[in-house]
Amino acid sequence: MSQAIMIVEDEPELAALVADYARAAGYVPEVFGDGAVALEAIRARTPALVVLDLMLPGLDGLSLCRALREGGKPGSELPVIMVTARVEEIDRLLGLEAGADDYLCKPFSPRELMARIKAILRRAGGTPPARVLAVDDAARRVLVHGQPLDLTPSEFAILATLARRPGQVFSRAQLLDAARADSLEATDRAIDSHIKNLRRKIDAAAPGLEAIRSIYGLGYRCDL
Fold it and tell me: What residue spans in the chain does CATH classification 3.40.50.2300 cover?
């Protein structure tokens, strides 16, 4: 079961971006733009982790974090990553003293935020998110977060080859061999085109998910 991540951020575009990355990483994001409303929601249904902006309407991030750390109440042990555009050391120290587990200054990389979320939940003993990409050989399809992609035979062969061995780099020739064994439509020049189409289809299913990485001079790799 995917873990819930609460994003408390009053900048709609940033909140939506972080939510997209969280969803692509296998989490279930929930966004709040008001600190007081977020606190009520946390008390009602405690998530796995909170990404908390410092400057918020209703209840600022420091006050919300301090309220969470009150002993004996729901959310008192909840991991919190605080984010803010205020980079002065005093702000960082105040955030940590209020009970935040980590601190990230704006502008930040959503990928770095996801890495920090995973690290904190791993330390906290949380269950890692379910595998993002899964190969269903019986149905000859690849699923993203449990949803099947609409793939051509060559696209299935290429993506299944990558997904079965995450972290392994495959050359274009290796992917071509895999595709040719599965389909007559595969040609040497088509590999890059197939990869482009796969990235487009994966992004449509899970925005921000970088499932296929280009390794310069070597080929392609899947890290999910």
Answer: 4-123
